[in-house]
């Protein structure tokens, strides 16, 4: 995969992390916080995995394809799950709509890299 495409996909992971965190932080202020508990948890998990994935993929020394693929698969899975969850709430909560868009970009970026490295 050419460097520009790789950089763009890594950026999607890094951009998703603070969006996930901000979305999770916004949810407790909602009247329906109990309904959003799972969404908060998965958003925080996703933020951690997105940042970790970006960090792992950014390293150019000691490349280990099996580790990169494992990290990418985990990030893809959580981004996909979060995107689906946030999409169901997007019509009621603006932060869920914003998060869903970021998750979808990250999900696509991870899927592209999994295919390229796979």
Radius of gyration over alpha carbons? 14 Å
Question: Which percent range describes the beta-strand content?
Answer: under 5%
> Could you say which overall geometry the principal axes of the C-alpha atoms support?
elongated
Helix percentage = over 70%
- Number of helical stretches of at least 4 residues: 4
Query: Sheet with the most strands?
Result: none
Q: Any idea how many domains? A: 1
Q: Span from first to last CA?
A: 12 Å
**What is the CATH third-level topology name?**
Substrate Binding Domain Of Dnak, Chain:A, Domain 2
Oligomer: single chain
Question: In terms of per-residue confidence, which ranges show pLDDT below 50 for 5 or more consecutive residues?
Answer: none
Specify the structural class: mainly alpha
Record the SSE blueprint:
Elements (H helix, E strand, L loop, with lengths): L2 H24 L10 H22 L6 H25 L4 H24 L1
How would you characterize the overall build of this protein?
By secondary structure, the chain is mainly α. It has four helices and no strands. It comes from Kocuria aegyptia. This is Four-helix bundle copper-binding protein. It holds the Pfam family Csp. InterPro entries: Csp_YhjQ.
Short description:
This protein has 118 residues and is mostly helical. It is 81% helix and 0% strand.
Attribute tags:
118 residues, mainly alpha, Substrate Binding Domain Of Dnak, Chain:A, Domain 2, 0% strand
């Amino acid at each position: 995969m050419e460097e520009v495409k790789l950089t763009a996909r890594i950026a999607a992971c890094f951009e998703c992390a603070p969006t996930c965190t901000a979305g999770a932080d916004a949810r407790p202020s909602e009247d329906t916080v109990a309904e959003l508990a799972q969404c908060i948890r998965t958003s925080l998990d996703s933020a951690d995995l997105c940042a970790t994935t970006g960090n792992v993929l950014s390293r150019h020394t000691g490349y280990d394809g099996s580790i990169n693929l494992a990290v990418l698969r985990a990030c893809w899975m959580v981004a996909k799950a979060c995107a689906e969850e946030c999409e169901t709430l997007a019509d009621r909560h603006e932060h869920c709509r914003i998060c869903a868009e970021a998750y979808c970009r990250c999900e696509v970026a991870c899927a592209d890299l999994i295919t390229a490295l796979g």
